[in-house]
Specification:
With about 575 residues, the protein is an alpha/beta fold. About 30% of the residues lie in helices and about 20% in strands.
Length: about 575
Amino acid sequence: MARYDRVIKHGMIVDGSRLPRFRGDVGIRDGLIAEIGRIDASDGDEVIDAEGLIVAPGFVDLHTHYDAQLFWDPYCTISAWHGITSVVICNCGFGFAPVRPEERERAMLSMTRVEAIPLASMQAGMPWDWTTFPEFLDSVERAPKAMNVLPYVPIGPLLIWVMGLEDAKAGRKPTAAEHAEMCRLLNEALDVGACGWSAQRMLPGGPAAVQRDYDGTPMPTDMMHDDTCREFARVLRRRNEGFMQMLLVSGDNARDQAFYEEMAEISGRPIVMNVVQAFDHRPEIHRRTLAWLRSCRERGIRVVGQGLTTDAGFTFTFENWNLFDDIEAWCEATTGSLAERKAKLADPARRQALRDNMPRTAIGPLPDIVIVGPQLEKNQQWLDHTLALAAEKMGKHPVDVMLDLAVDEDLKTDFFAAPPNGSLENLKEIVDDPYVLFGVSDGGAHTKFLTAGRYPTETLVKIVRENNMISLEEAHWRLSALPAQFGGFEGRGVLKKGAPADVIVYDFENLEVLPDEIVHDLPGGEWRRVQRARGYRYVLVNGEVTIRDDQQTETYSGRLLRFGTGLSDAAQPQATE
């Protein structure tokens, strides 16, 4: 009888610990790494030849919104295609539990703009066989998975459950009884395996309030009282466990930083701060953030920044675009039904306000947007023109060029906006901070115009191979071990004896991100934009091969990682009040 279920032979092992790479073999038994070193091929039931390939731990993605998609896509693509083996769901305070049956439609509507998940896909693809958060986790556990899934507790549903939607969005301070009930619900969720809580707090009036409800109003967590956050932080303090994820933008940078610090100090637990992003036209922004994060570390305050390290741009139409919401005039003009939006964008009375307030924050300067998909023959002459160049030739304002084209083509014109973080110099400044987490993939969200789930492959190709910003050893630590540690993934992120066998085997020299493509594979007849990878010879999740030569094997060996371990609640100590 063979000693191992699988042996990975002759690979170059980069184990995720930052130690130098070495040649060796990996023996896997019962979903765990049983041995690393020299192993006879005859000792394995199956032998994977890794000659000339890198063997490394699977990537860990702390920022996804696969809460809906995991029910119809066990691989949580595009993440699985890029070597990711573990994801965190329920980020930003958004999620689907606890939700009363009569409030399910409204819960799905809320995700159509803030995270741009198609309503028809959620309606057709979600089982909704739960009401409470514990029941939601049971449903996730039952669902086939080719990915490990760790859940945070999204705060938005808690606010709505206890206060009602209108009061939660009004921003009133909860009563003592309401706070007590929300904390009870949070404890209930943590007792069954959630690993912390999350919230988006893009406060009205802030410069980046770009993620709003389907009707253009703030999300409930945007309006949440500071004292409610403090109550939730105290829950983690009493339990001495858990993590927090928060996106906080109030318009007062010093106030925001102080509040992150307060959350970390009250709880005594780590808080993941979103997001560290370079804006090439204002590099002082990311430099101030990096200096503050270093200061937190020096003072022993557990605030960790998550960096936007991908330069995936946005390909969009005005049928579904929602990232101009930081400007009221644009938010108003791009909400409503398709017919209403078309009428508003065509309205001459609105145009001056739109011209006077050209968006910039999320996409860079608007005149730099490129026309990449004119639909009508008469408009093909503008293909690959920037709005600025087309405006010069037409004698129009860039806003009028964009909106006239869109209205003329029933809002189907494709535009491309390069991200405002294209500078390699600025990227290197973020990468050079050894404790900035890579990612912010938003996997499962913005499905029609964003493919940031490619970031692990992009890191290895662009940051390591092409520009030599960091070593391969450092990259794998940053992509696996560091997020696993901060996100509560117990034992994952490194290759060592006894660790879960989440392993990638890839061709470093030929690894690449493939061009984007449109696929019609969502429930409800919906489509999405994806980017695949080339070069992942094998991906193993808990010891089973889920990807072979960049293709899914339809093997569902992923687990719901209750408490970060996958153990049942019965095996965990319960918190004392």
